[in-house]
């Protein structure tokens, strides 16, 4: 069909002219009118009729709405499973998820072969570790069966409060509720031994990160604090290596109060939950024992005091920043819980000192265990890099296991660099240096000015401080301060490296620069390499699974009795045997009286204590006073004897 093209143009012009003079209502429908103009123009061209454009019956459209039909279609919200998967994915790549996984892997590798034969071997030696394996087993068992008798353990019969004769590791009681018997106790101990290293690494990393260091700096400080050479001499003391709660609690408290060394106090970052969590972790740390828990409590009290003074001064000078009632209440409640836990655990220890006043430490004992200055440069024999090299120097030490206090030469070097080159401000660096020096001086005990102005005032005036026998363990705080200094240097290097990298294309550090940033990590990790022994633990005698108490196991001595404590974890029968930080006088008298067993005098003495059974271990008897005790006739002694495969059981 023929048509004139000009007709369409004229029709469109007529529509445009009409729209220009239309009312406001007509103007809002210009789009609709224009859309209808084309068929109207075609009709006018064909028949020559007038064009009448009527607005469509619809709501007016805003200018933004005119373009909405060109927009991309909006996505439907994701379903719940999709949201869950996305949250899980974000969690898996979160910094602290990766830190936890890495810490576990490093802890397993650095403590290997602890988990190779966990039911048969134990780290360091077969004395204190077996005692601590029993401690975890006892606390878990008694809290499930008879919590009121927690502190009256089944060992050292008939002594009271015997669970308080050494640090209790009470915080590990939940683990002690799993499994029974010596093998379960060994597996439990070995697992907690590895986890203690992992937690220490995580806690130190979290603290240094919260204070403002970078990731590499946090890794350096965490590894240096966890695997410092001096710790290798303490691998047989789970209550000493279980220090992860200290930096973790400090990190959580700092996070809850919006504080960092690098950025100061930032009230907008406060979080009540983190503050409460920090107090709870601190209380758990103290529950593991006062060997390192007591100094931590005093450090925490000092931090709170200094913070309150600084905040008060700022208030007077009208420089106060908001603190918040909720945070204050959280601190009061958390601090009360921390103090209550410490007091409740301390009560049985005070009771022990009342019953056994000779168990208290004295200045002469502190003096014996005080390390010389050169101890700060000496590593224990378990150190793979330095153990053999330092052997001649260790020979002159009165008690090398407590006097090899090397935090690490790499850590010393990095901390020294951190004094000159760091992300921390100058006054912060000086405070960290002062903290490291003060802690080192205290760790030397009576060595500096005979302790008159250093250790003795703490011993005399701070409640509970006289219970600390070995001051060298305070080197832990020197290690922490040096680690923070080292983290400042490494973080500053990383910051400048990234600044240089931004000028490159692509804008990230090159391979050599990235390798240089990893070198400090490798150095501090290398100094933690060790050759810790993993001896096989003596097998439980069959009699320990069947014979009831109260009983005495022969031979008896302070160290071998620790094995008896472990063997008793099957039924937890009462045993007169026991090993701890001190020996009760009645236990010493019992051992002396039992040397002539079986005879009328020793039998009468044992009966007077309430002991009704004596188990003689044949394999352990040679070379002891009880070497021939199993062959002595007992018919005239009023007792009976039962010969078992590996032991002899005497019924009194």
TrEMBL record:
Supply the source organism for this entry. Answer: Spirilliplanes yamanashiensis
**In terms of domain of life, where is this protein from?**
Bacteria
Q: Where is the composition biased (Basic and acidic residues)?
A: 56-68
Q: Which residues cross the membrane?
A: 96-115, 187-208, 215-232, 238-259, 271-290, 296-317, 329-350, 405-423, 430-449, 474-491
Q: Does the keyword Isomerase apply?
A: no
Listed name of the protein: Uncharacterized protein
User: Which UniProt keywords are present, listed alphabetically?
Assistant: Membrane, Transmembrane, Transmembrane helix
Q: Specify where the region named Disordered lies, as residue ranges.
A: 41-74
